[in-house]
Every structure is written in C-alpha cells, then in structure tokens.
Design goal:
The protein has a domain of 195 residues. Helices cover 55% and strands 0% of the residues. The protein contains 20 helices and no strands. Helix 8 runs antiparallel to helix 9. It is globular, with a radius of gyration of 23 Å. GO terms for molecular function: hydrolase activity. InterPro entries: ARM-like, ARM-type_fold. Keywords: Hydrolase.
Length: 415
C-alpha cells in the first residue's frame, strides 16, 4: 500500500494479527504479568537514592503498573484460564485432580487477582455482581463470559457448589493462612497485595456464608467496598444490622487461635502505613483490607462464641483496638474500623443472637483511651478532610455503645 487509499477502503486485518488477539495469547499474556511483577519490585528497590528522587521513581512505577493492569482489563478473558475454572464442574474432576495451585497461584498478587475476578464472575448472579474496586480499566471482558456457560439453569449456584465441594474454598483459606499477601517486616506493604487480600477476603466471605442467611437476602455478603461519603449518602442511619453467619464446613476449616491471630495482625498492619507521604497515605487499599477483614471477623464471631472469648482475652486486644480507632492517620480507615466494631457489638443474626457480651470489654477499653483521644491534634493529610464529622467516629462509636449498655438493651454478661 502506497498510502493513496483512505483507511476505510483497506481490507480488514486478519483477526489472528489484531493486537488484542496477540496480547491475550502466550507468551504475550504471561509477559504482561511479568511486567507487573517487575514494576512492583522496582517500587521498593530505591533505598539508596535520595527521598525525593526515590518517591518520583516509585510514583512512576505505580502509574505504569496501573496502566498495564488497565490494559489487561480491556482484553477479553484469557480462555485457557476461564476453561480451567469451568472444568471443575465436570463430573470426572474431583478435589485431587483440581489443580488449584495453578488456577489460583498465590506467588504474585496480579495473577491471583485476575483469577479471583474469574471466580467471582462464574459464581455470582448478575443481579448481585457489582463493579469490582480492582477493575481500574473500562473493559467488561470478564463480565461478558456469562453467555459462554454450558449450564443454563442457575449456573452460578451450581458452579459455586462445585467450587466449594472440590476444594476451591479450602484453597482460598490456605492462601489466606499462608500470609503471602500480608506485610513483610523488611519492606513496605504493596498496595497490590492489599487490594488482592481484600478481594480474597470478600470471596471467602461470599463462599462461607450459611445458606439460610444467604437465602434471607443479606446483600452485604456481596457488598463491594464504597468510599465513606458515598456509603453515607446511600444508606440511612437507622438500618437494622443483620449479621450473616459462616457455615459449619468453613468453621471446621478455621483454627481459632491461628485464624484470629492472622486477622488481628492484618488489621493492625492495615491501620497505619509504615511510611508517611502521599504515596503511602490517602489510598483506598488499606481501607478495603480493614473493611473486609472486619466483615469476616464479625461473621466468624457471631458464628462461634469461642472466637469472641479469644478476641477479648487476647493480649493484643487493647493495642489492636487503640490502633484501629485512634492511631490510623486517615479518617476513612478509622471510619471503616469503627463501623466494623459497631457491627461487632450491636449486630444481630436472623435467629436473634446479639453481640452484646462484647459491650463491656469494648466500652471499658474505649474509655481508657479517652485521654489519648482528647490529646490528638487534627492532622493535615493528603486527602480531603473538610468534613469534620469524619473525625468524630471514635466519640460517636463510644457514645453509641455506651447508650446501648446503660439503657439496659445490651446489659449482658462479659465475655
């Protein structure tokens, strides 16, 4: 072609040569994840540079990694990975044959997060499926796979049951217990790990909820994280707090001492970033972790009394509570923490079980923090904190819990 013809007159390119087709195939598809991993490693390899230069390079690496992720979200779902997850509904695939380590590889957060999105799409009805907080791109490639399902009657429910019975939920819990997505002592907690961990906890909660509670229509089981301001506008102030419980099979897979220790450590790390600055504060990653970690902890506590007793008697309970309610620098992180603790104390299950036994230890410790709360000065952050109500969550939560206790509604025995 000499360029004399307009592009509209040129023949259509061969579909196999289109960029979108080439990128979704190997080795290019895997190279995108390798690029994401390399950019993540670059994020923490500038310790010998001056702080200003290091922050500039960190910002550039994070922007580039987000753009690569956006590109992935614009591409059609990788058919090899999609078919791998669909194959588990076949009768000849048992728990031993299901290659969960390959389907849900926990080595890198990017590949795992991509796989979790496929799991969510195959397991959740369209009416309950919301735009994921991880989907930075504008494409709906994963969402478009519903028509490709071979099963026509309640395909999401059938697939979800197969996913659980063939070890999918067990593998997700093993990833959670492994600590591969948690903060390491020698480096800053990657925001990719934070977002992937929050996504993992949301799906664990989805698959773990007791069927009777799910049938009762607890939409918060499928709740996607929203910013505090949007949530305040969407929800009324007098909503009844109904807590979904975990099913017996999930409870059998959880060790109270180990699981509770992991959840408390995750929340402790998520409350306060190890480094201050615009790169590390003002992002939603840690707020998402707090939101979904506390949601899972609340459901677990209402499902097993021993969890509540272990939480109250833990030697880390007081510093853990203080860090969540007072020491977190961002208002939206403290808000998520206080809302979770509110549900922990003042929620109710469908059969009438309440969290009132937690009122006494909670209000006792919150009152002991009062001097510290009064001495805290407003901090200038990199987020908009013009709404002063966002700074009052500690006091509002303490007063609300105190009201429930003193008026007799929650006057129950201490755990």
């Amino acid at each position: 072609m000499d360029g004399s013809l307009p592009s509209s007159c040129l023949p259509s390119p061969v579909s196999e040569k289109l960029p979108v087709t080439l990128l979704i195939r190997e080795p290019h598809f895997q190279q995108l994840f390798m690029l994401l991993e390399e950019l993540s490693k670059l994020d923490f390899n500038f310790s010998k540079m001056e702080s200003q230069e290091r922050r500039g390079l960190q910002t550039t690496a994070r922007i580039l990694s987000r753009k690569v992720w956006e590109l992935l979200m614009l591409l059609p779902t990788n058919q090899s990975m999609l078919e791998g997850f669909k194959q588990i509904v076949s009768e000849d695939c048992d728990e031993q044959k299901a290659s969960w380590n390959a389907l849900l590889d926990s080595v890198g957060p990017h590949k795992l997060m991509y796989s979790l999105q496929i799991v969510e799409t195959l397991s959740r009805p369209v009416r309950n499926r919301k735009r994921s907080f991880m989907r930075s791109g504008g494409g709906d490639s994963i969402m478009s796979t519903d028509s490709e399902m071979d099963v026509t009657e309640n395909p999401e429910e059938i697939w979800s049951q197969k996913f659980i019975t063939k070890g999918g939920l067990k593998h997700l819990l093993n990833v959670f217990k492994s600590g591969s997505l948690q903060a390491n002592e020698d480096e800053e907690w990657s925001q990719w790990n934070q977002e992937c961990l929050a996504y993992l906890l949301r799906l664990i909660s989805q698959f773990s909820v007791d069927s009777s509670d799910a049938e009762a229509g607890h939409d918060d089981v499928f709740e996607t994280y929203e910013s505090p301001r949007r949530k305040m506008k969407r929800k009324g102030g007098n909503e009844k707090i109904v807590i979904p419980r975990l099913n017996k099979s999930t409870l059998a897979m959880l060790n109270i001492d180990t699981g509770l220790s992991i959840l408390m450590q995750i929340l402790y790390d998520a409350a306060v970033p190890r480094e201050s600055g615009p790169i590390h504060t003002g992002t939603w990653g840690r707020a998402e972790v707090v939101h979904y970690s506390l949601s899972f902890l609340v459901s677990w506590t209402y499902s097993c009394d021993n969890v509540r007793q272990a939480l109250c008697s833990s030697p880390k309970f007081v510093p853990w509570l203080k860090r969540l309610t007072l020491e977190a620098p961002e208002p939206f992180v403290r808000r998520e923490a206080c809302m979770g603790l509110y549900r922990l104390c003042l929620g109710r299950t469908t059969d009438g079980k309440t969290g009132y036994p937690l009122l006494i230890p909670m209000i006792t410790n919150l009152l002991s923090f009062l001097d510290n709360a009064l001495s805290i000065k407003p901090q200038k952050t990199y987020t908009d904190v013009s709404n002063k109500k966002l700074e009052l969550f500690f006091f509002i939560g303490m007063i609300t819990i105190w009201d429930y206790y003193t008026n007799g509604t929650g006057n129950r025995s201490i755990c």
